[in-house]
Design goal:
Blueprint: E1 10-13, H1 19-25, E2 32-36, H2 40-48, E3 53-55, H3 65-72, E4 77-80, H4 86-92, E5 96-99, H5 102-114, H6 116-131, H7 136-147
Parallel strand pairs: 1-2, 3-4, 4-5
Length: 148
């Protein structure tokens, strides 16, 4: 899809068994960059500087930790809605947009990139969830409440 989004840089963090195929697909796309393995601090900086973090997971995630990492630095997400709990963490939280098809992903990316008010609203909502209901403190308080 990046050939249809020349104004957007896609930065791929990590590595894996599909990297060679992805590099081949992106060979003629100057807006696709492979960052490789990154430390937690490097990832936080990458997420913080992004207009959005795309979580294309098809695996049924149990919660979506990448979404929380993104929300922690006030960056909205675009999540694949077939990725289990990503619908809840990424979309129903108010901190991101969801997609199921390539056309929906293209539309979501264009909306986030070109609508600063939408992007800021999603970022604020995601940050509120991450620092409120989904914070470590909130979870520990609920856990201790159950014990009592």
């Amino acid at each position: 899809l990046m050939k249809w989004l020349p104004e957007i840089d896609l930065r791929l963090a990590g590595t894996g068994p599909h990297e060679a195929e992805l590099r081949q697909l992106a060979a003629d796309l100057p807006n696709v960059h492979f960052e490789g393995l990154m430390s937690g601090q490097q990832l936080a900086r990458l997420f913080h500087g992004a207009r959005a973090v795309v979580v294309p997971s098809l695996f049924p995630e149990t919660f979506g930790y990448v979404v929380l990492e993104s929300f922690a630095v006030r960056t909205p997400v675009v999540v694949h809605q077939g990725g289990g709990a990503l619908q809840e963490t990424g979309v129903e939280s108010g901190g991101g947009l969801g997609y199921q098809t390539d056309a929906e992903l293209l539309l979501a990316l264009r909306r986030i990139v070109h609508d600063a008010d939408l992007r800021d609203d999603l970022a604020d909502r995601g940050f509120r969830m991450r620092s409120g209901d989904w914070s470590e403190t909130s979870h520990i308080d609920r856990y201790l409440g159950l014990i009592h």
